[in-house]
Amino acid sequence: MVTKTARSAVPVYSTGQGRLCPGCGQPMASCSCKTKAAAPRGDGIVRVGRATKGRKGSGVTVITGLALNPEQLRELAGRLKKQCGAGGAVKDGAIEIQGDHRDLLITTLQGLGYTVKRAGG
Prior knowledge:
Translation Initiation Factor Eif1, alpha+beta, 8 strands, 2 helices
């Protein structure tokens, strides 16, 4: 059985092979085109802000604007989480770290050579 998306006739899943690459139609493990998500483009400024929306009042520090591939983003997130002594995650190209660690993260990212701005209040 092959499932197709509503927008195009490219198969995205096969019960015999699993997930399929939308670019070449091969199983993801043997993809020949190696379509990967491109690094986000922006103005070159890393923004560090705080968000509480959807978290029942608990705040997280959100870092956006990093033009890194997903592997580099996960590696940097791990390094920053260790620096803060807190948990976190990488979601939609942004790093979320539990708690309000904006000041520490701004100095750490500036030390790594990034142009950093404090976003929000």
